[in-house]
Amino acid sequence: MARILLVEDNEMNRDMLSRRLIRNGHEVTMAVDGEEAVTRAHSDLPDLVLMDIGLPGIDGCEATRRIRATERIAQLPIIALTAHAMTGDRDRALDAGCDDFDTKPVDIQRLLGKIDALLLPKR
């Protein structure tokens, strides 16, 4: 079981994804914007972050850069989530420091595979 920080501003997406992650044995905490994501990454010390890119305030790319800039949490695995499936969006998220990228609507089995792939080396 992993502790996952789910960063998502859309309530329906947050609810659906958190329930599916919990059903698959994960513990989930949530943030609704980039500032809260950085704060919760510091305070909760999750095993992995699912980062929506299109957030209000500071976006997911900037939140990722801020997490990467802090030594204590710089190595957190981060998977970018976005409804934008353009190559440039993927590149922008990876350039900001995300470890992987997935699109919405989320295919839960594909996402669980990506989560496992990032967490297996830590276990």
UniProtKB/TrEMBL annotation:
The modification 4-aspartylphosphate is found at residue 52. Residues 3-119 form the Response regulatory domain. InterPro entries: CheY-like_superfamily (IPR011006), Sig_transdc_resp-reg_receiver (IPR001789). It comes from the Bacteria. Keywords: Phosphoprotein. Gene3D superfamilies: 3.40.50.2300. SUPFAM superfamilies: CheY-like (SSF52172). This is Response regulator.
